[in-house]
Fold:
Amino acid sequence: MEIYQYTNKGQRKENQDYTVYKVLPSGDSIFIVADGMGGYSYGDVASHVVGDSIASFVEANIDKYEPQTLLENAIKGANEALMQKRLLLNVRKMGTVVSVAMIKGGELYVTWLGDSRVYLFNGDDMVFKTEDHSLLNEIKTKRPLSASTIERYAGVVTKCIMGDDDLGEIPVKVIPITKGETIVLCTDGFHKEMDIQWALNYNTALKETLDAKSNYASDNYSFIKVAI
Structure:
């Protein structure tokens, strides 16, 4: 298994994205990409708290729960950790979206809240992609999206972790995986402004290309690539 991480703040003043992963002695592994919500306080802190909490919970409890329950409890624990941090900092609102991929027993387990994504590729063919928890996705199930609607609600998410009592349903998907496939987790700054193929085929030359994109990227952009 080969693992690559990339993050860039783009034209933003600070980087509120966070990527973290752990490969456990058992061979199981957990990968997290979190994107702090810039409209609230301490977005960078929120993404780090949530990412580290999920990684640590999975590492400590990998054999204590069924995989789906493990991820659900990891998300709940991260929400509690963010609540404690929010109270400590004495701020009303902190938040982050998050995408999580766990490899265990030859299967891929995915959970996410918001518009950071998880992709699975077999070669160049996309096998799986998470659907964004966004207001635009909800609206388009009811009516066509107008240009004004897209402009007005772009970036508005309907699920996230905010350290409060209302997490709602935590989705968990289970996908069979085989050797040779590739997992990509990325923030919306990447999948909206960059070519997903740059993450899929990431190498030293593409790093230079991605670095150069920071001159005009309107958002932080980050990913983790896992070549199985």
